[in-house]
């Protein structure tokens, strides 16, 4: 009888030239909550993916409950009792919770009404045992993120997992939902389950973990007990240097009002109200942060303000000009820049080179095209200057941008947007998936924009980021602005409550705008 | 979200069960660069070999068959001029569908657009019988482009405003166009003195494109080559070409940069149809000299292969259209030894299949199995 | 009344080849693979049936041969799309071109010869007393019944079994299915081949029952109409049954008009099914413009397990 549930030794995994895991050793005792700490790109997910059979290690050995095991597929991992709660849930959005939970079941081919009823009851009882509640018979995509995660956990447990991996489980949750998750985890621990949680959030580690392993750049740096460490120490281990904690935003007087939004009503994709009569203002030299759980109208807000979708009702005034059904192009010309949510999906064209990607917004200008002919030489020179200025590391101007690292892609995107000297920049989750260095670079670019007089609308799920950078924080929930907090008055617990829709802050939410 | 979405060389293993038995494994690398000419050539050869097997099964000597085809297509000045004659409409249609494919609009309606172009050009001769002579050719060409372009638009409108898959619409319209052609040449436009021949009366000399030398080749060939040059230039150098590049590479990002996607789809489909219509008008005024039953032996479908073989590069289409044109002419010449001319259609399908399979296969590499053993 | 009965009977016989092909297409698309090879596979199915029947005069062997030949083409499509991850649209187009050419090549020797075939019919005398139904369904050939049977079985297979659940999961979210231990490639191969076999049966029916005489390109775009009907039928086999008969009816209607010597030229009547397809699809698109698309989410997308997501 060994005390270790998982032992991984000398694990190496490379992707082409990149070494994602370099001789990593990782052990987890039975019945503990073990945190695997590391920043984005440290190799946490890779290690966990090998444990769950998605990737195969190039070399190294894995033992589960003391037996050397070869995990060649998710199925084999499951048979060993390993279950993973993925960051982007592995649920089929069109199936109901029940169907998702029983998806892997092979027995009972015929599934009539009575079979369903029986299963439903069985699963309801099962889920209740762990205090996990969610709608059973609604397609998953109707469920909130927290509910989806509960389905994912029940699914894992139902399939008989006794080692459960949580991959960045709180990244999509409100603070309240996160607390609920930690309670669940403790409940599971009482039931004798072994858990691994991967994260880069130090507070979470200190809240739930018994033991902590720290990874950095594909290597295992340390194994520590929670009692024996502090947040500061962990931060240093994770990043490899002192983290510049809570830097000061230089105070600048607000300038003129750039954007005034009143009673904005926007319908989303399926005709549902995505934004319900919201209003706010953005000034020059101001970063306005929007906090909220994804899917509460942030995407539609950005799309409406960049002309991608039209609003049904309300007033939007940009630099004293009343906008009505603006086109994307007219808003670009009026000085609105946009860092979209998913840079490879909507920000860059992965197969095209640097120059073509930089030309996205400016190719209509006289400097870039003459008589509708592209000024090839001039554009190349301009592109070269830009990538030098923004420190984009690329082999040459023509290699497809999908080959750049995430950080360099984001810098390229910023280079393009900032080069237009925007009056207002709308940035959605600008640091998602970036490592600490690139995140810092992005933050600095936003602060510089603020200094030069641009207004910034920063929409992010990372509450720390919003609180760190914003002069003013709007909390959005269910298409409505739940509250507006100034930088000094911002309090994480209160924002959490607002994000979850539990509280409404009754305050004048925008200055009475002078419309005419 | 994984941390390194951009990691190159995301190698993918496809065979896991061959360990121990076979010490190598195939790895898939979606970004591996391949020589742009080798794959089409090798694929064509493989396709020819595969079809040779069928020919053998059918009790014939493939070398005789292929020899006959090559000789028919390129063995004489008549053969060569016939090949070029077939290459002309193929080139124009391929240029049209190629432009649409560049922005992922699956126009397979070139056949119908070609027929409409032919009808349009003929309509000029029928409804305007007394124009001054030199006006005819320009009018016929323009009518062909407009008819073909409108037919293309009929595909684009359901796609942009009603979310209807353009593959289906464009194909349905092919059948409609074919029936319309049949109606015209069998009923109202039939030559009353044509001994029941399903076709219009012969055009007057002013309505015919001038020929080159003593062959059946005509100015259409020149028009096609000019069209290729124009589009090569437009795509590479202009703002419009850049917009298409963007739309092709990432339509979502293109919308974010202010490009009106629907407008471009409508325009591209009109151009795509217009080019096929141009081919149709050249066919009636330069080759058939009348509108008749079966005016297109499937040029619109064959053009798809011409475009893919050329990897959608307009300039390369010149060569692939001559190659496929030769295949068609060769297909006719095997009729003398008792094989159907649809031989060439079968070869075309096999070549296309081998081409896309070959393109993907070339991204795999054999690597020694490692780890875990 | 008589006209209605004749029309309905004609709708069934014109609708059955469509239905076979639609059902095959549904199986393909439900696992996330677009199969535009329908037309080519139907033609190969038809020409194989024709040749084998002329050789053996055995209906059962002919049936098997049609299944085998279409399974072969299905295997090619599956290999190219699933293992090689090539563009499914181009692969389907290539299969159609190849099928059209190859069937013409094979059929050259048998073109024009009428098949001395008599397909057994199932007489249901107990249906006789029911006015309309009795006359229409009382004396239907076995393959029309087979097709109805396949549609019903497919319905239960898709909605009432564990396989059906896997099928939907593989087509909507292959990565999830993989994690859940459902073999994505296995399900895709199996259903692409099975679906192609149904398309082959469509060709078989066309030549053995509908018009027993090989003509080059005799499918006349039915494969493409079937692809459109998949959307119309919302990927549901029972809706497909109704849609296919409806379109079969339109086809038959054109034919009826022709016999009645209506003043409309037959060419325009023959256009009805094609134009109806476009109009119906436009109607469906317009009606569902605010609804989320219901097609399988991973339709046309190859699956890589070790892809970074």
TrEMBL record, chain B:
Pfam families: BPD_transp_2 (PF02653). Keywords: Cell membrane, Membrane, Transmembrane, Transmembrane helix. GO terms for cellular component: plasma membrane. The chain crosses the membrane at residues 37-57, 77-101, 113-129, 135-155, 167-186, 217-236, 265-285, 291-310, 315-333, 339-358. GO terms for molecular function: transmembrane transporter activity. Its main location: membrane. It is found in: Cell membrane. This is ABC transporter permease. The lineage of its organism: Bacteria, Bacillati, Bacillota, Bacilli, Bacillales.
């Amino acid at each position: 009888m060994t005390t270790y549930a998982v032992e991984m030794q000398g694990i190496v995994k490379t992707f082409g030239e990149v070494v994602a895991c370099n001789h990593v050793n990782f052990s987890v005792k039975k019945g503990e909550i073990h945190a695997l700490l590391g920043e984005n790109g440290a190799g946490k997910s890779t290690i966990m993916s090998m444990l769950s059979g998605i990737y195969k290690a190039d070399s190294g050995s894995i033992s589960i409950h003391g037996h050397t095991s070869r995990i060649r597929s998710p199925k084999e991992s499951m048979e060993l009792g390993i279950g993973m709660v993925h960051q982007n849930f592995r649920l089929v959005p069109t199936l109901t919770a029940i169907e998702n939970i029983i998806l892997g079941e092979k027995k009972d081919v015929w599934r009539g009404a009575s079979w369903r009823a029986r299963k439903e009851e069985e699963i309801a009882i099962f889920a209740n045992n762990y205090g996990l509640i969610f709608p059973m018979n609604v397609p998953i995509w109707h469920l909130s993120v927290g509910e989806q995660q509960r389905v994912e956990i029940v699914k894992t447990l139902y399939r008989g997992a006794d080692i459960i991996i949580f991959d960045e489980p709180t990244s999509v949750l409100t603070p309240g939902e996160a607390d609920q998750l930690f309670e669940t985890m403790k409940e599971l621990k009482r039931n004798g389950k072994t858990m691994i949680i991967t994260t880069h959030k130090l507070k979470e580690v200190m809240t739930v973990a018994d033991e902590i392993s720290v990874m950095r750049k594909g290597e295992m740096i340390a194994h520590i007990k929670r009692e024996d460490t502090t947040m500061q120490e962990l931060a240093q281990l994770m990043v490899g240097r002192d983290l510049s904690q809570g830097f000061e935003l230089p105070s600048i007087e607000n300038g003129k009002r750039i954007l005034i939004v009143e009673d904005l009503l926007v319908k989303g994709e399926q005709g549902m109200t995505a934004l319900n009569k919201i209003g706010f203002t953005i000034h020059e030299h101001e970063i306005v942060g929007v906090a909220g759980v994804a899917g509460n109208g942030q995407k539609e807000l950005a799309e409406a303000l960049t002309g991608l979708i039209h609003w049904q009702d309300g007033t939007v005034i940009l630099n004293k000009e009343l906008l009505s059904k603006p086109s994307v192009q007219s808003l670009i010309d009026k000085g609105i820049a946009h860092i979209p949510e998913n840079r490879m999906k909507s920000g860059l064209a992965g197969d095209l080179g640097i120059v073509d990607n930089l030309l996205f917004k400016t190719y209509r200008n006289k400097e870039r095209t003459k008589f509708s002919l592209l000024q090839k030489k001039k554009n190349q020179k301009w592109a070269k200057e830009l990538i030098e200025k923004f420190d984009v590391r690329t082999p040459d101007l023509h290699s497809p941008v999908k080959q750049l690292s995430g950080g360099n892609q984001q810098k390229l995107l910023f280079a393009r947007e900032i080069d237009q000297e925007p009056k207002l920049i709308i940035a959605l989750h600008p640091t998602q998936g970036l490592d600490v260095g690139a995140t810092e670079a992005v933050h600095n670019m936003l602060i510089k924009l603020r200094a030069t007089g641009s207004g910034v609308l920063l929409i992010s799920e990372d509450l720390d980021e919003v609180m760190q950078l914003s002069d003013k924080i709007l909390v959005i929930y269910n298409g409505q602005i739940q509250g507006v907090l100034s930088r000094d008055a911002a309090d994480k617990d209160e924002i959490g409550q607002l994000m979850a829709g539990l509280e409404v802050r009754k305050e004048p939410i925008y200055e009475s705008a002078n419309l005419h | 979200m994984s941390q390194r979405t951009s990691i190159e060389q995301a190698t993918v293993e496809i065979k896991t069960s061959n360990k121990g038995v076979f010490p190598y494994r195939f790895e898939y690398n979606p970004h591996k660069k391949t020589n742009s000419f080798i794959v089409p050539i090798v694929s064509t050869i493989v396709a020819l070999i595969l079809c040779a097997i069928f020919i053998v099964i059918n009790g014939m000597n493939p070398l005789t068959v292929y020899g006959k085809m090559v000789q028919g297509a390129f063995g004489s000045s008549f053969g060569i001029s016939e090949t070029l004659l077939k290459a002309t409409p193929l080139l124009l249609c391929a240029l049209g569908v190629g432009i649409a494919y560049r922005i992922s609009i699956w126009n397979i309606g070139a056949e119908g657009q070609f027929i409409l172009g032919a009808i349009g050009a003929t309509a000029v001769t029928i409804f305007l019988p007394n124009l001054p002579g030199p006006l005819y050719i320009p009018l016929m060409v323009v009518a062909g482009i407009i008819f073909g372009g409108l037919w293309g638009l009929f595909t684009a409108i359901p796609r942009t405003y009603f979310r209807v898959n353009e593959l289906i619409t464009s194909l349905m319209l092919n059948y409609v166009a074919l029936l319309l052609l049949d109606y015209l040449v069998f009923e109202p436009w039939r030559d009353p003195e044509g001994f029941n021949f399903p076709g219009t009366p012969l055009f007057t000399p002013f309505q015919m494109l001038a020929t080159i030398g003593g062959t059946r080749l005509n100015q259409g060939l020149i028009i096609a080559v000019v069209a290729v040059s124009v589009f090569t230039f437009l795509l590479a150098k202009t703002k419009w070409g850049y917009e298409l590049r963007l739309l092709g590479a990432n339509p979502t990002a293109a919308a974010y940069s202010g490009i009106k996607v629907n407008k471009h789809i409508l325009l591209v489909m009109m151009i795509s149809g217009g080019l096929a219509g141009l081919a149709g008008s050249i066919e009636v005024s330069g080759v058939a000299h009348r509108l008749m039953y079966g005016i297109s032996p499937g040029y619109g479908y064959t053009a798809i292969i011409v475009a893919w073989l050329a990897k959608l590069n307009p300039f390369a289409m010149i060569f692939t259209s001559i190659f496929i044109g030769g295949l068609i002419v060769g297909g006719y010449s095997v009729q003398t030894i008792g094989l159907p001319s649809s031989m060439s259609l079968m070869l075309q399908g096999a070549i296309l299949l081998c081409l896309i399979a070959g393109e993907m296969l070339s991204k795999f590499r054999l690597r020694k199995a490692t780890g875990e053993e | 009344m008589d006209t209605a009965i004749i029309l309905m009977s004609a709708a069934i016989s014109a609708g059955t080849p469509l239905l076979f092909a639609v059902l095959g297409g549904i199986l393909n698309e439900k696992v996330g693979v677009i199969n535009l090879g329908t037309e080519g596979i139907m033609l190969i199915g038809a020409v194989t049936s024709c040749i084998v029947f002329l050789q053996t005069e055995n209906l059962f062997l002919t049936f098997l041969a049609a299944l085998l030949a279409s399974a072969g083409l299905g295997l090619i499509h599956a290999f190219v799309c699933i293992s090689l991850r090539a563009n499914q649209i181009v692969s389907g187009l290539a299969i159609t071109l190849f099928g059209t050419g190859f069937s013409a090549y094979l059929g050259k020797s048998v073109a024009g010869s009428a098949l001395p075939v008599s397909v057994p019919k199932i007489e249901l005398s107990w249906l006789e007393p029911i006015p309309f139904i009795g006359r229409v369904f009382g004396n239907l050939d076995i393959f029309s019944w087979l097709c109805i049977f396949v549609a019903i079985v497919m319905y239960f297979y898709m909605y009432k079994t564990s396989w059906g659940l896997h099928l939907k999961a593989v087509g909507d979210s292959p990565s999830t299915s993989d994690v859940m231990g459902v073999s994505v490639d296995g399900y895709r191969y199996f259903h692409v081949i099975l679906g192609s076999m149904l398309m082959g049966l469509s060709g078989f029916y066309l030549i053995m029952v509908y018009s027993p005489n090989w003509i080059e390109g005799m499918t006349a775009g039915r494969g493409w109409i079937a692809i459109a009907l998949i959307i119309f039928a919302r990927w549901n086999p029972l809706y497909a049954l109704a849609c296919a008969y409806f379109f079969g009816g339109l086809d038959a209607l054109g034919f009826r008009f022709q016999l009645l010597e209506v003043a409309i030229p037959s060419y325009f009547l023959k256009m009805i099914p094609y134009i109806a397809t476009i109009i119906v699809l436009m109607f469906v698109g317009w009606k569902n413009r605010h609804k989320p698309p219901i097609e399988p989410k991973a339709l046309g997308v190859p699956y890589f397990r070790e892809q970074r997501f």
